[in-house]
Specification:
Oligomer: single chain
CATH superfamily: NAD(P)-binding Rossmann-like Domain
Strand order of the largest sheet: 3-2-1-4-5-6-7
Protein name: 3-(Cis-5,6-dihydroxycyclohexa-1, 3-dien-1-yl)propanoate dehydrogenase
Shape: globular
Pfam family, one: adh_short
Number of strands: 7
Number of domains: 1
Structural class: alpha/beta
CATH class: Alpha Beta
Order of helices and strands: EHEHEHEHEHEHHHEH
Strand content: 5-15%
Enzyme class: oxidoreductase
Largest sheet: 7 strands, parallel
InterPro entries: NAD(P)-bd_dom_sf, SDR_fam
Number of helices: 9
EC number: 1.3.1.87
Bound molecules: nicotinamide-adenine-dinucleotide
Length: 274
């Protein structure tokens, strides 16, 4: 395609085998970019269209991330955009429902993937991004700003990602722009920690259960009546990656969460929920 917003750019998306990462990878492709995806799930990688470079690996491994960056540069010649995105959720497990041992193990797993995974992705990619004066577009969350988007571990991990975004924007300026998209609830296969036995739960199944029980909004969906599919959240990722349209933007987060900050998680009963 010609005339896309990311014509000629090269992007690497972590956790791009599923959910919002996959949707961003496909949207970047449609906008004219060449795209590589790192994911730990071989089956998800197999489902990516031809032309996307699929690299199997775990974001907790510096070697896997360096390999993904090297493979991207070998295939496409450079790297312009990094999307740190791979993550897991804690399925709202409150501190009052977990033992110290469970918390300790789940902390290591949630922070290992959600936070260390972002740090290591940036470490592996920054040299190539400096070379292209590229950018980073992180997946953040409503849980980067607000409570009740998960339990304490998930909320803290997503707040930590906001800290990383700001610090990396400072450290990598003026060569590399660092921004983020704080998405709200989306119908994805977002998993829970293996250490809590939640590795096979998916957020999509929780949505389906809630919808079947007659709840107007699936859990975590604030105020949009539509727009729960990951594809509906990709626009801000394109905008922030675009040199022409966001060349002066760094250290910024676009909330794409349906307005949680102004209206909370639920439409008020019989109230302002139009
Ligand atoms: N789904 C939501 O409602 C929601 C809301 C806000 C933010 N997010 C964030 O979006 C991001 C993507 O999640 P999603 O909802 O698309 O879930 P998803 O499970 O559909 O996609 C996540 C992908 O990351 C991969 N992954 C997980 N751990 C990995 C690891 N250690 N190494 C490599 N790959 C790994 C998975 O295999 C999967 O393909 C996460 O950071 C999540 O916190 C999701």
């Amino acid at each position: 395609m010609t005339g896309g917003w990311l014509e000629g750019e090269v992007a690497l998306v972590t956790g791009g085998g599923s959910g919002i990462g996959r949707a961003v990878a496909l949207r970047y492709l449609a906008e004219g970019a060449s795209v590589a995806v790192l994911d730990r799930d071989a089956e998800q990688l197999d489902g990516l269209p031809e032309g996307v470079l699929a690299v199997r690996g775990d974001v907790r491994s510096p070697d896997d991330l360096h390999h993904a960056v090297a493979a991207t540069v070998e295939r496409f010649g450079k790297l312009d955009v990094l999307v740190p995105n791979a993550g897991i959720w804690d399925y709202h497990r409150s501190v009052t429902r977990l033992t110290g041992k469970e918390l300790s193990e789940a902390f290591d797993e949630v922070f290992g993937i959600n936070v260390k995974g972002y740090v290591l992705a940036v470490e592996a990619a920054w040299r190539e991004l400096v070379a292209t004066r590229g950018s980073i577009v992180m997946t953040l969350s409503n849980a980067s700003f607000h409570t009740d988007g998960g339990g304490s571990l998930y909320t803290a991990s997503k707040h930590a990602c906001l800290g990383l975004l700001r610090q990396f924007a400072y450290e990598l300026a003026p060569r590399v722009r660092v921004n983020g998209v704080a998405t709200g609830g989306m119908r994805t296969r977002l998993r829970g920690p293996e250490s809590l036995g939640l590795q096979d739960r998916t957020l999509a199944a929780s949505f389906a259960r809630n919808e079947a029980s007659g709840d107007r909004q699936p859990p975590l969906i604030p105020l949009y009546d539509s727009g729960v599919e990951p594809e509906d959240f990709t626009g801000p990722y394109v905008l922030l990656a675009s040199r022409a349209n966001s060349g002066t933007v760094t250290g910024a987060v676009i909330p794409a969460d349906g307005g949680i900050a102004v209206r909370g998680f639920r439409t008020p009963a019989g109230g302002a929920g139009l």
